[in-house]
Specification:
Structural class of chain A: alpha/beta
Shape of chain B: globular
CATH class of the largest domain in chain A: Alpha Beta
CATH class of chain B: Alpha Beta
Distance between the termini of chain A: 52 Å
Number of helices of chain A: 12
Oligomer: heterodimer
Number of domains of chain A: 2
CATH topology of the largest domain in chain A: Rossmann fold
Largest sheet of chain B: 8 strands, mixed
Number of strands of chain B: 8
Radius of gyration of chain A: 21 Å
Largest sheet of chain A: 8 strands, mixed
CATH topology of chain B: Rossmann fold
Order of helices and strands of chain B: HEHEHEHHEHEHEHHEEH
Radius of gyration of chain B: 20 Å
Helix content of chain B: 25-40%
Strand content of chain B: 15-25%
Number of strands of chain A: 16
CATH superfamily of chain B: Thiamin diphosphate (ThDP)-binding fold, Pyr/PP domains
Chain lengths: 385, 294
């Protein structure tokens, strides 16, 4: 299905990542957003609030992030495509409702423009320290998808992808920006609506008598309905059977939780998004994402200029982690260098996937600015030593 | 022995059965609990209001009353603790033709969810909020709620509650609700009529229903069983329509002022939004069409 032209601002623009993210959401068909102000993410919903009344939709500023993160889910069950936007402290508050969305299989998008933490931390400065929280932050076992853009153009493109994946897998999808990418202004090309693919909601064609709200299809994802269509369905955050009714049995819990975790795996395995460069002859692979990947690019140039065979592996899909790709790469390189604006998060995934076949060197940073490329270069040189 | 004069056929069914998920019966509520009574009143209100049931959604939070959503044969959502109102807000805005009813307990709506309640009332969101007030956290074992009266014993106030309780009807009025009523589960006809009235009124409507909790409130406080609660409600209740809500506080064993306290007209959220957008944007304003295509 093609994008609705009403939401597509076709043209060549000069805009920041936050605004591009908003345009991506509009192009993807989002017609409902709920938010609560928080730096450095607010520009996304500010733009949505300005744009949506002439497109046809709703923006509501809620009383807190708990409200925003569940208002979008009410809107989804009412039939809308919906998202919310936040940063560090607000993301922490939204955790319960990320779990609710995972449990009730509510397709929606959470945008997190990461800043330095913990707590109030560095409101106006970058960080990448919410990566594990995005995956594991809500209680219990569940799966999610998380994407990491490194430019305003990708903020636009990947927000569309995020909505599409959320509909395909019926799962909350995290857009993990960082303050630099959110506030960086660059060229953004928005194509014609007919060249933008939009995944429709997986509405059932079954009658209310035949329909079972949580009966998995072949790909483990159940079909959806919306309120008001006569299905008289029930949705609960309690462990539920295929009818959607609470069932506290161990068997139902096992089937449900395993399915919620399993169903998103294809988004990582065969279909993980990533970018590689100069890996053919590489001894060292620099694994990075978001703004750090652009700093790493400079370090890679410096390394090559010194004759060091270094290449890049840029994570675009952070979750599910592209385990297979890293495992395969571990057989080809001597070492991985993993710079990130945290004290070590995705590096543990690299280490786990490399399974001892290659050395893994973290390049940590507590946030507040980006790495100095020389620090990454030093790590690359240490890796080949 | 008193013989019944009612001629009930053997295959007769309760008239509210079509409103309930009978396959989920028996429900989890204790003997003497009043929540089922309120559900009965609600279904009768729906019957009388002639609402299109395909367009009625019930949203609940967590707790004993939170389970109402699971028993109502309607589109129903059992959400997270305290957050039924913001969920309902999103549902209503995305699909304004729905009649959205929030059905939850006092702890859920006024402790963890208190902020959402006052803001939805301030916005005059077109929601019908039914609060079953049993004055206690019952599902978790009888802890103090923001509605537990002074001196009452609870599992977390074993020497008696020392905090003042909320006066819910006063809070609702102050926050902007356009309809505010209070009944007890003794007042089934009046409650049902209030629910019917609220279903017919646009804007944020609030109905508080005092309901017995024999298991976790009355037993610990030596207040008898469900029937004793009914006797208390019958004797202590004074119907005072239009009473100033500030004078309607509740206590452990004192007078219970019931009635319809507020019934006023205020433009609701959607009307205000539309008016503002039309004023600012004129013909550029596009009516929300948020529902995504099938």
């Amino acid at each position: 299905m093609h994008a609705d032209p009403k939401g597509v601002l076709t043209g060549v623009h000069f805009m920041d990542g936050d605004h591009a993210c908003c345009e991506g959401a509009l192009a993807a068909g989002a017609r409902f957003a709920a938010g609560y102000p928080i730096t450095p993410s607010t520009e996304v919903v500010e733009r949505f609030a300005a744009r949506i009344p002439t497109i046809g939709g709703i923006f509501i500023q809620m009383e807190d992030e708990l409200a925003a993160s569940i208002a979008i889910q009410g809107a989804v069950w009412g039939g809308a495509k919906a998202f919310t936007v936040t940063s560090g402290p607000g993301f922490s508050l939204m955790m319960e409702h990320i779990g609710l969305a995972a449990m009730t299989e509510t397709p929606c998008v959470f945008v997190n423009v990461q800043r330095g933490g913990p707590s109030t931390g560095l409101p106006t400065l970058p960080g990448q320290a919410d990566m594990m929280q995005a995956r594991w932050g809500s209680h219990g076992d569940y799966g999610i998808i998380a994407l990491c853009p490194n430019s305003p153009q990708e903020c636009f493109d990947l927000t569309i992808t995020a909505f599409n994946l959320s509909e395909e897998f019926r799962v909350p999808v995290m857009m993990m920006l960082d303050e630099c990418v959110g506030h960086m202004t660059e060229k953004v090309v928005i194509p014609e609506a007919e060249s933008i693919e939009v995944t429709p909601r997986r509405y059932t064609k079954r009658s209310p008598e035949e329909y079972r709200p949580f009966e998995p299809q072949e790909d483990l994802v159940p079909e959806m309905v919306k309120a008001g269509d006569g299905y008289r369905f029930h949705i609960t955050g309690l462990t539920h059977d295929e009818r959607g009714y609470p069932d506290m049995s161990v068997g139902t819990q096992d089937r449900l939780v395993r399915r919620l975790t399993e169903k998103v795996k294809p988004a990582g395995d065969g279909r993980a998004l990533y970018e590689t460069g100069d890996l053919d002859d590489a001894e060292v692979a620099v694994v990075s994402y978001g703004i750090t990947s652009r700093v790493a690019q400079r370090a890679l140039q410096l390394a090559r200029a010194r004759g060091i065979r270094a290449g890049k592996f840029r994570l675009i899909t952070a979750w599910p982690f592209p385990e297979r790709q890293i495992r395969e790469l571990a057989g080809l390189v001597k070492a991985f260098v993993v710079p990130e604006l945290n004290l070590g998060q995705m590096v543990y995934e690299v280490e786990r996937s490399a399974a001892g076949k290659a050395k893994v060197i973290p390049v940590t940073h507590a946030g507040g600015t980006v790495h100095n490329p020389d620090v990454i270069l030093d790590a690359i040189m240490e890796a080949v030593r | 022995m008193i013989e019944t004069t009612l001629d009930i056929p053997a295959d007769a069914r309760n008239p509210v059965e079509p409103f309930l998920r009978m396959e989920r019966m028996p429900h989890i509520w204790c003997a003497g609990c009043g929540i089922g009574t309120t559900v009965n009143c609600f279904t009768r209100a729906l019957l009388k209001s002639k609402a299109n049931l395909d367009k009625v959604a019930v949203v609940s939070g967590i707790g004993c009353t939170g389970r109402v959503a699971g028993y109502a044969r309607l589109d129903s959502f059992h959400t997270t603790h305290g957050r039924a109102i913001p969920f309902a807000t999103g549902l209503k805005l995305a699909n304004p033709e729905l009649q959205v009813v929030v059905y939850s307990g006092d702890g859920d709506l006024f402790a963890i969810g208190g902020n959402h309640f006052i803001h939805a009332a301030r916005r005059n969101m077109d929601l019908k909020v039914i609060c079953v007030n049993n004055m206690i956290y019952a599902m978790t074992g009888g802890q103090t709620a923001p509605t537990t009266p002074l001196e009452a014993l609870t599992s977390t106030a074993p020497y008696g509650v020392s905090e003042p309780a909320f006066n819910l009807v006063s809070l609702a009025e102050a926050a902007g609700a356009c309809y505010v009523a209070r009944w007890t589960t003794y007042h089934v006809m009046q409650l049902s009529r209030s629910m019917e009235e609220a279903l017919g009124k646009k804007g944020f409507c609030f109905i508080e229903v005092l309901s017995p909790c024999p298991t976790l409130y009355q037993r610990r406080n030596r207040m008898g069983d469900g029937l004793d609660a009914m006797k208390y409600y019958k004797e202590a209740s004074k119907i005072r329509h239009g009473a100033p809500t500030s004078e309607c506080s509740l206590s452990k064993s004192g007078e219970i002022v019931v009635g319809k306290f507020v019934d006023r007209e205020r433009p609701d959220y959607c009307e205000l939004l539309r008016a503002q957008m039309c004023q600012s944007l004129g013909e550029r304003y596009a009516e929300p069409e948020v529902v995504c295509s099938r």
